[in-house]
Specification:
By secondary structure, the chain is of the alpha/beta class. It has helices at about 30-35, 40-60, 90-100, 105-115, 135-145, 155-170, 190-245, 255-285, 295-355, 380-405, 410-420, 430-435, 445-455, 480-490, 520-525, 530-535, 555-560, 560-575, 590-595, 610-625, 645-660, and strands at about 65-75, 75-80, 85, 170-175, 180-185, 365, 375, 420-425, 465-470, 495-500, 535-540, 545, 575-580, 600-605, 630-635. The chain is built from 21 helices and 15 strands. Strands 8-15-14-9-13-10-12-11 form an eight-stranded mixed β-sheet, with helices on both faces. Strands 1, 4, 5, 6 and 7 form a five-stranded antiparallel β-sheet that branches. Strands 2-3 form a two-stranded antiparallel ribbon.
Length: about 650
């Protein structure tokens, strides 16, 4: 990505000009080499994960077997009489039936039927728990935090826990678009898994029949009560009809019609008589003297009065007899209605009693479960997942080690951070390797030492450096081993070499090569003995060694004495190369006193260990004292993981490939 710039002629201040930093390309080769360098971490994490998973899968877990029984639900329903019609079962009903298989009511019947309370696989209370198990520790912590005391479980708690454990071993599946239920039971025993699955299927059918019988019994009880009540009402209405008939003659419709006809005729004759009476009275009033009309008036008047009384009597009889007939008819209608209801309920009661003995479940078992098949633990899957987790963990550890690593991983990073050239990358120089260093001149370690020696023989400021000061930021960074190896390398090219152990605080030279316990550097500086008597020649090393000698209270004061400078000047005349093993400048001021009399300084940095800030602080302190730092040495390096070694292997492989 290129930087974005704008013309400053438009008046935009330079600090406001937006810029885009260049994104460095991803070095896939470097990424591969980093992963390859940490391959043993990944392999170790994978091996540990696979071993733990293998121990869990093969030693800790018990095998599990699963058996499946198959049921079919009938989609037909009896709607009217004995006629069965096809009625699809809705999803809600199917889900309800699925939940019935896992209900405590049905699972409790399985526990009781198979006596699972005596089975340790389902009744965990029969097996004493390990006090160090996760469940035991969790229970103790919960009781401790809540201030409760553990109480032994009662029968209800044991039953509920057994049902819960059984529910965990049961699974019911309904294949899509079918009326099939697959009841699966898992157990540590193949036969037991089949027994549990078959028992659950059979008890489901039995429970369905029992539920239908219970519903039929409830319906029969209700119908019996209704029949008894209707029978009582019917008897009461029939008694009322009989009492009404017995209390008075019951008119029939013909007699009522006759009375009605007589009443009409009487009403007609009364009207005619009253009209004749009025006419006779009129004629009588118009006559001048009494005539025989008076007898007609009296006769018509008597007839009208008699007819009127007879009409009233007829209407009274007609009303009384009509009311009795209406009451009788009403009672008979009510009795007929009650009789119909009574007969209907009585027939339904008889039908319910018959169906009670003919109840069947709405499902049937298509296939019983056979001895279970092995289902868990899935060892291959566990091992595969563990291997994947191990690889991912290895990558995470490898990435974290690169992210949080404080030291330098290669010479290029070290050179860019400090600004000094890396003279060599030395492997870990143990005592045995130093002893056989001269016997393997073609080894990568010997080649790295020769590279360091060649870099130091380059003239510095017009002259070849003679006094080389070797130091580091912290102890145990390989500076002593580097000084010994460098001295041996100079001695191998016939250079008269002197190795001075100037680390008077924590001398480490004797841990690598045997030195005599006589007087050393402190005795020479103090003027007790001359330099020639304090020097010890090591045959295997091929160089002279001046050990530290007696350790004094304040080592820094020794290097400040004028005799030390005279001693070093005399040594300069006698030797071609003088290598001084000095203490870390951040921990002791001794090194700062040795800097002015040294030609160059070799600064040692431990690979992937020494923090960058510590390295920069040590170099800054040496620079302030005017030290001529020839360069840096990356010590304790794993040459297989460095860029130099990878490039060397790549070139060697390419040369071999190009050979005919």
């Amino acid at each position: 990505m290129q930087n974005l710039t704008h013309n400053s002629a438009v008046g935009v201040p330079p600090y406001m000009v937006p810029t885009a930093q260049e994104i460095p390309p991803v070095d896939l080769a470097e990424l591969f080499f980093k992963v390859w360098a940490g391959k043993w971490i990944i392999i170790l994490c994978t091996a540990i994960a696979v071993l733990l998973a293998g121990y869990y899968a093969f030693a800790m877990t018990q095998p599990r077997y699963s058996a499946t029984a198959t049921l079919q639900i009938s989609p037909s329903q009896k709607l009217v009489g004995d006629i069965e019609t096809f009625a699809p079962i809705d999803p809600i009903s199917i889900n309800t039936k699925l939940q019935l298989f896992r209900s405590s009511h049905l699972l409790g019947q399985v526990v009781t039927s198979l006596n699972l309370l005596e089975d340790p696989e389902f009744n965990r209370y029969l097996t004493p728990s390990n006090p160090l198990s996760i469940n035991s520790v969790r229970t103790k912590l919960r009781n401790l935090l809540m201030g409760q005391r553990p109480e032994p479980p009662n029968e209800t708690a044991i039953m509920n826990k057994t049902i819960a454990n059984l529910a965990g071993a049961i699974s019911v599946n309904n294949p899509r678009n079918t009326y099939i239920f697959q009841i699966s039971a898992s157990s540590g025993d193949a036969d037991k898994a089949a027994i549990v699955a078959n028992a659950l299927a059979e008890l489901y059918l039995s429970d369905q029949i029992a539920a239908r019988n219970a519903a039929a019994d409830q319906a029969a009880t209700w119908l019996t009560d209704q029949v008894y009540e209707l029978q009582t009402q019917l008897e009461a209405k029939e008694i009322a009809i009989n009492d009404l008939i017995a209390s008075a003659p019951t008119p029939d419709p013909q007699s009522l019609d006759l009375l009605s006809q007589q009443a009409v005729e009487t009403r007609t004759r009364l009207a005619e008589t009253q009209a004749a009476l009025i006419e006779a009275q009129t004629k009588l009033n118009m006559a001048d003297e009494p005539t025989p009309l008076q007898a007609d008036v009296r006769r018509y008047s008597a007839q009208a009065s008699a007819l009127q009384d007879f009409q009233i009597n007829l209407e009274t009889k007609l009303a009384d007899r009509s009311a009795g007939l209406i009451q009788l008819q009403q009672l008979r209608r009510e009795a007929d209605t009650t009789r119909v209801l009574y007969q209907t309920f009585l027939a339904r009661l008889q039908q319910t009693r018959i169906e009670r003995d003919l109840q069947t479940a709405d499902s049937r078992i298509l296939s019983y479960a056979s001895p279970g098949q092995y289902v868990a633990p899935r060892k291959s899957l566990i091992l595969a997942i563990a291997a994947l987790i191990g690889v991912v963990t290895g990558f995470i550890i490898l990435a974290a080690s690169h992210v949080f690593r404080q030291g330098f991983n290669n010479a290029q990073d070290l050179s860019q951070a400090t600004g000094y050239k890396v003279l060599a990358q030395l492997p870990r120089l143990t005592k045995s390797k130093l002893k056989h260093l001269g016997n393997a001149p073609l080894s990568p370690m010997a080649e790295a030492i020769r590279q360091l020696r060649t870099a130091l023989t380059v003239p510095q400021s017009g002259s070849i450096p003679k006094i080389i000061l070797s130091t580091s930021s912290l102890p145990a960074e390989g500076k002593t081993a580097q000084s010994i190896a460098l001295a041996q390398s100079f001695a191998s090219i016939k250079k008269k070499t002197l190795l001075i152990e100037a680390d008077l605080r924590t001398p480490a030279l004797s841990r690598h090569i045997p030195c005599y316990n006589g007087p050393g550097l402190t005795a020479v500086i103090g003027g007790d003995i001359p330099l020639s008597q304090a020097v010890h020649h090591d045959v295997k090393l091929g160089a002279d060694i001046l050990p530290a000698g007696q350790i004094l209270a304040n080592p820094a004061d020794i290097f400040a004495l004028p005799d030390f400078g005279a001693c070093l000047a005399k040594a300069r005349e006698s030797y071609d190369v003088i290598i001084i093993d000095a203490p870390p400048p951040l921990l002791a001021t001794d090194t700062l006193l040795l800097v002015p009399i040294s030609d160059v300084v070799v600064y040692n940095v431990r690979w992937q260990k020494t923090p960058s800030q510590t390295v920069l602080a040590g170099l800054e302190q040496l620079k302030d004292c005017g030290a001529k730092i020839a360069g840096l040495v990356l010590t304790e390096t794993d040459l297989r993981k460095t860029q130099f070694n990878r490039a060397t292997k790549f070139m060697t492989a390419r040369q071999k490939f190009q050979q005919p």
